[in-house]
Design brief:
nine-stranded antiparallel β-sheet, 21 strands
Length: 244
């Protein structure tokens, strides 16, 4: 196995690198694969057990071993290592975890400035890794357009569906039905709700679930085709590509 070069031994959280905060890493952490959620159930007359999947994955815990350098301000470091944000590692700078620090962690000394304090934060992460840089939305104006998911697991996109009247949208094997379109409808296929409005003071969000029925869209790895009928004229896809 090729060792990780020292120049790649860094991480960033909430947009700040450990080197910016004068914090060093003892080593790159173990990043476990997420466990599939489900239940093994014994079935009378059946050898072994039957797996009953929940079609979901558990969160993962990533723990770091850090120590402060001479220039570090421990109060600023502890403030940085709190809350939630994107977590990126130097050996895979194009991917990120959506992470949160949910537990207390130890520090070896309470002086605001003191070199070589040991820190051991743990990040509670969503099960998937996402692209570290924002992905430009995909605008589809022609039915039958092909899009390609570069990830290793299906994505749950944010859709902006425009048009008027009634129509249907198909991506992969899933179909959504839209009734009485008059303004663009946003469909968050991860949070599983639909709304109108952009979420600003001048355009507040209003639930529009009554206008949308069918299956929540999932974009499988590889090639997928976007098709729409009726009054739908365009679909803007924020894809949220992700990797196990």
């Amino acid at each position: 196995m090729k060792p990780i070069e020292k120049m790649n031994r860094w991480f960033s959280f909430n947009g700040k690198k450990n080197t910016d905060m004068h914090v060093a890493m003892m080593s790159m952490p173990v990043r476990p694969l997420p466990a599939a959620l489900g239940e093994l159930k014994a079935v009378p007359g059946m050898n072994g057990k039957l797996w009953l999947p929940e079609d979901a994955y558990d969160r993962v815990l990533v723990s770091l071993n850090l120590y402060t350098l001479d220039e570090a301000n421990i109060d600023a470091v502890c403030a940085w290592l709190s809350g939630e944000g994107d977590l990126v590692f130097g050996d895979e700078p194009d991917k990120c975890y959506h992470a949160r620090i949910t537990k207390q962690f130890n520090r070896s000394n309470h002086n605001a400035r003191f070199a070589n304090q040991d820190l051991s934060p743990s990040f509670d992460c969503e099960p998937f890794r996402y692209q570290a840089t924002p992905v430009s939305p995909i605008s589809v104006t022609t039915t039958g357009t092909k899009i390609t998911n570069p990830g290793t697991i299906e994505s749950a996109p944010l859709l902006k569906v425009s048009g008027s009247g009634n129509g249907s949208l198909m991506i992969g094997g899933a179909t959504m039905i839209f009734d009485d379109l008059s303004t663009p409808v946003y469909v968050d296929c991860d949070a599983k709700f639909a709304y109108t409005g952009e979420g600003t003071a001048s355009s507040p969000r209003v639930l529009a679930t009554q206008h949308v029925t069918g299956e929540w869209i999932r974009i499988a790895p590889g090639d997928n085709y976007v098709s729409f009928t009726g009054g739908i004229t365009s679909v803007t896809i924020t894809p949220r590509w992700r990797w196990l």
